[in-house]
Amino acid sequence: MSEAKESTIGKDFTLPQLFRFVAPPVFTRLMVSLLQTLDDSLFVSRYVGQNALAAFSIAMPWFMLIDAFGMMASAVSVVCSIKMGEKEIEEAKSDFTTMILLTLCIGTCFSLTMHFFMKPILLMLGATELLMPYAVEYMSVSKFYTPLILASYIFGSFYVIAGKPKCSMYASAINTACQFFFDWLFIAKLKIGIVGAAYANLIGNIAITVFAVIFYSNKKHEIHFVKPQSEIWPLVKSVFKYGRMQALTSLAVSLSSYINNHVHLGIGGEEVVAAYTIVSGVFFMFMNSFFGLIGSTSPLASYALGEKNPKKLIRVIKQTLVLLTCLGTLIVCLIIGGRSLILKLYLTETSSQTVKALTDRGLKIYPLSMIFFGYNVYIQDLLNVLGEHKVSMFLSVMENIIIQNIMVILLPRLFGIEAIWFVFIVTEAITFLFTLYFVYHYRDVYGYGKDGIATFTDR
Questions:
Q1: By C-alpha distance, which of 277, 258, 279 is closest to 365?
Q2: Measuring CA to CA, which of 91, 188, 306, 326 is 20 to 30 A from 403?
Q3: pLDDT attached to residue 429
Q4: Is 456 left (phi over 0), alpha (psi -120 to 50) or beta?
Q5: Rounded Cα distance, 31 and 23, in Å
């Protein structure tokens, strides 16, 4: 394998080159989230009803728990990027293969847990008598593709490292096309209800898994399947070290989603849950584009760290911040400017006026949190990549467990039902202040301060 091919993520990118490099995964995450949110939520909302849509929100903490393990497992991409920067190419390939096999086993455990304890889990999550039938229908099928969801986190994070970022776009296009078509077929045409969304997701996950297996079986790619590691524990410890922050974030979001559901049911019932599901769904749909950008530039920072190259690291950080600013501004304008279209897509003339009014208000306020969100997520991820795991975890805990849950409980009690839309803005603004402090504190450790000092700490 040639040196040039081995070091795609080690190239010195200009800003336009970096934009072209990250554009496919960013566009992919945005379009996939857009279409998946539209097909699942839109088809369910329009053809099954608001209670079915609220059932999605009730089940969300369970899927965020699964996401926590997927996000942690995908941190193997950081481990492998650093090893590639250190020219340990074969070991990186072996680590990748090992984590794929391990996540499939973990996913199977999740599937079995849901199979045997479905109703108790849904009751614990807050499913009411109205929502339980919809949640059971959906989860009865979704449990089967849980292992594929976990593996997809790793597959998706390695297309960039393998030097083929466009393949993430191709894989996601296949997934989205399958889900959109089969949602339309099962829900709109055959009218089999919310279970149709679960079947569509099952087919889409099978399709992208087949695509990934074919891709990573090709020995010509920079990352491909090889013999797995015989000693798994050292790899697990390394992945946990780099992935615990992402896992903790997903766990915290799961907890917040759980608290949100109970608070919203308490102050306004299923209508508030339905409105919040629409608004937060639109937000998270666009939020995924940030993860596409950050996930694409993190391997570049990891590689620079492996090289102990502060100039390259500083350049990547500055370029990423510029792109984050542009992306955040664009998203705020799109959501606020397009809220009339969003309302028409999700709600019909027979929809509750309360849901319509709450949703319209939320679409005006909730997106403003994007002003801080992208920077907070990027700095947390960057500090984790650079080896400051405790600081990254502290910021994540402060944001997602302490501040957000206090705001969720406190603001609606003080200012009424519409205060639910300000929770995320206040949370992100407070977190941003903590983030600025740690950026300043580590300026001379990684060389992005005025003096250009780069002492580097042990990772």
A1: 279
A2: 326
A3: 95
A4: left
A5: 12
For 153, phi then psi, to 5°, come to: -60, -45
Question: How distant, in Å, are the alpha carbons of 4, 277, 288, 336, 427 from that of 328?
Answer: 33, 21, 11, 12, 17
- Structure tokens, 12: 């010195």
Neighbours of 360 (CB within 10 A): 16
Query: Which DSSP string do the residues of 369-393 spell out, in sequence order?
Result: GHHHHHHHHHHHHHHHHTT-HHHHH
- The total of other beta-carbon atoms located within 10 Å of residue 102's CB is 21
pLDDT given for residue 449 in this prediction: 65
* Residue bearing tokens 């992402």: 246
pLDDT of residue 249: 72
SS3 state of residue 228 = coil
**254's tokens:** 């799961």
Question: Which CA distances in Å does 76 have to 34, 399, 409?
Answer: 27, 24, 36
| SS3 (DSSP) at 185 | helix
Q: Which sign does the torsion angle of CA 301, 430, 34, 15 carry?
A: negative
* Residue 265 near residue 69, CB atoms below 8 Å: no
What was the pLDDT predicted at 455? 60
8 A C-beta contact, residue 221 and residue 164: yes
DSSP for 196-214, please give it: HHHHHHHHHHHHHHHHHHH
- Answer whether 456's CB lies under 8 Å from 306's CB: no
What is the structure's pLDDT at 22? 80
Specify the pLDDT at position 406.
Answer: 92
Q: CA 200, CA 202: separation in Å to the nearest integer?
A: 5
In the predicted model, residues of the chain with pLDDT beneath 50 are: 1-6, 459
- Among the listed residues 29, 40, 36, the one whose alpha carbon sits nearest the alpha carbon of residue 286: 29
| Alpha-helical regions (H) of 86-131 | 89-116, 118-125
Give the amino acid at 439. V
Given CA atoms 6, 10, 11, 13 in this order, what sign does their dihedral have? positive
What's the confidence (pLDDT) of residue 2? 40
In angstroms, rounded to a whole number, what is the distance separating the alpha carbons of residues 408 and 199?
33
Handedness of CA 441, 446, 452, 453 (dihedral sign): positive
Render pLDDT for 45-76 as a digit per residue (tens, 0 to 9): 778 877 887 887 788 888 888 888 888 888 88
- Global model pTM greater than 0.85: no
Decide if 346 contacts 322 (C-beta within 8 A). no
The amino acid sitting at 363 is L
Q: What is the C-alpha separation between 16 and 311, in angstroms, rounded?
A: 18
Per-residue confidence (pLDDT) for residue 278, from 0 to 100 = 83
